[in-house]
Amino acid sequence: MNYMATMVILASLVGPLVRGAYFQAYKPPIEAKGGDVATGTVIRQDTQTLILNTTPCNDDREKQIVIFRAPFATKTAEPISCPGGKTFQQVTANKG
To answer: N or C: which end of the chain has fewer CB within 10 A?
Structure first.
C-alpha cells in the first residue's frame, strides 16, 4: 500500500472516530418538538431560539441540552439548589 492510499484511508476514519468519541463523552442536544415542555437554566435566549440546560447540577459530560426554536413560550420556574451549594434560576419552556 502506498503512502497516498494510506493517507486516504486514515482521513476517512478520522471523522467517524471523532464523532464517536464526542457522543460517548457528551449527550447530544434535544430539539424540542410541538407540545414538548422542559425546565432548566438558560444557556442562550433570543427571539428565535432558547437553549436550556435541563441538568444544571451535573458536570459538563452529563448535562442535557434542549433547544427550543420559535414559537415557544417561557415562564419563571423555581430555582434549583445543587449539592455543591450553587443555586440556579430556572425557566420552563413549552414548544407551541
So the answer is: N
Which 8-state DSSP code applies to residue 87?
E
**Exposure of 86 in the CB half-sphere (CA atoms within 13 A):** 9
Count how many Cα atoms sit within 13 Å of the Cα of residue 32 in the half-sphere of its side chain.
27
State phi, psi for 79 to the nearest 5 degrees.
-65, 155
**Phi, then psi, of 75 in degrees rounded to 5:** -150, 155
Cα distance between residue 34 and residue 69, in whole Å: 10
Distance spanning both ends of the chain, measured CA to CA: 57
Q: β-strands 30-31, 72-81: how paired?
A: unpaired
Q: Residues 3-46: pLDDT tens digits?
A: 666 666 656 666 665 555 555 557 899 999 999 999 999 999 99
pTM of the model: 0.71
Name 14's Cβ contacts closer than 8 Å, sequence gap at least 6.
Answer: none
